[in-house]
């Protein structure tokens, strides 16, 4: 429901309280806090190191000398109990087609220099951001930019202890395709495959090494843990003999993508010692699993340099963990059986896609990643100018958080400070919050002045002007805010809204907070449905101005808001409206029409159950109202 998004997650609080990060830190404590404490876990690695390989070698030799390796060996030897596939498969799952179909781009659109990409993009090297994807021409919304199958894929296996037959669907462990009929590995009976071909390839290339561990949930499949995906990258590299050479100038190779994975960004040198300890621990754990539970090292047993091989593999595991942490795509597989399919997941996973990994983050991006069957498609969600960078919003970042909270995530998890247009807009709203009297979209800030006169300056048109008239509204707003804190009155909120409209621009986040409070007040009273509708639309207009109508959390919230409105008995019982109320209702109709176009960007028309219901109800509402 709409108010849930803004009550729990939205940006600034109306009373100018300091931002609190407690909940955010609790959410990311596994990542931000490093290795979680376990019984007997006392060792902390503090040595200096040059790179991933040097760090692993020193860590491994130290834990061998101090005996700490026996604790890790014990953990490897004493895994959880055997676990097998659950048996209750929904009949709906069997009977419905579960995968979105998408027509790949044609041969003449293919990019000669970037595998899986169209000729709409090119690679550009930036000193600060590294590799970037840049538009080679002006692009309209809904333009396909990349169509890539994951080189390495993580799909959480479904079993009796973690499976949920209501929302989870069987997905192929090798390619990610949803399975109406599937095959299981005879040994583990946990991993499902869409075909015998996928089963054969998986068993030959990597599953033989992971099978025992997956039976016992040796690896966490949590979104914030990269132990398993780094293990899978290593096994992929082993099938290519760890060949990191490429002889052509194009980016990507169908036969061997390992060089491009090996070359992905890694911020190991920037990580805190706590995080480094966590990664080294994970790498040793994976190394001991390979050594003690599989025959991975059998070809090297007779060679005199087997210890060097152990150190090399351990260093690779560290390197791939760090690369996966900032380059993997968190997948939320859509479940088209339940609701609209937008915000209902049939499980999660991770993917390593070297081409998509070239795309940088923006909180308000111009492209998005969509899961189509067993491959990922990057499509534009806005018009993109020639020379503009292609950006997506990383799954780890929630654009409904404040700019400070979002930067906490990007800096702590992804090792960069986001300075996208939306972040700069929020910064500007804080530093220069006032309405400029000269330009329509300008933001003004107060200037220090020694002669006690209040002056303002617009950051857009750079004009200065007296703030005397504005200061009167600011003082009046402070009085109403104080009164609201005491009375919690809706009438006082409306007066505060009138003051804020004189002080701040119409797209201001301060106005957003006022609209949210008024919306929640009316929602609680349930006395004026048109007012609920009016303020709900105002909230979405401000958010869509900063973000995009196709940002999935925003689009999902809009669907639920409209669904709740037309399902509200008081709303549907309205028969007579004023001209102002009729105008709000007309605006609502316009938003409903726009909603279908946005939903069709992600979903086939036959899956728009919510929209069909909303459209029918809105038509019925207009048939039943009269306006003087």
Structure description:
The protein is an alpha+beta fold. The protein contains 21 helices and 16 strands. Among the domains are: 136 residues, no CATH class; 183 residues, Beta-clip-like, CATH 2.170.270; 33 residues. A four-stranded antiparallel beta sheet has the order 13-14-15-16. The chain has a three-stranded antiparallel beta sheet with strand order 3-11-10, with no helix packed on it. Helix 5 packs across helix 10, helix 10 packs across helix 11 and helix 15 runs antiparallel to helix 16. This is SET domain-containing protein.
| Integer-rounded radius of gyration | 28 Å
What is the number of helices? 21
Largest sheet: 4 strands, antiparallel
What's the end-to-end separation, in Å?
A: 33 Å
Placed side by side, the strands forming the largest sheet appear as: 13-14-15-16
Structural class: alpha+beta
CATH topology descriptor of one domain: Beta-clip-like
What ranges have pLDDT less than 50 throughout 5 or more consecutive residues? 1-40
Oligomer: single chain
User: What proportion of the residues form beta strands (DSSP E)?
Assistant: 5-15%
CATH architecture of one domain: Beta Complex
Share of residues in helices: 40-55%
CATH class label of one domain: Mainly Beta
Number of β-strand runs: 16
Mean pLDDT, all residues: 83
Shape: globular
- Fourth-tier CATH superfamily name of one domain: SET domain
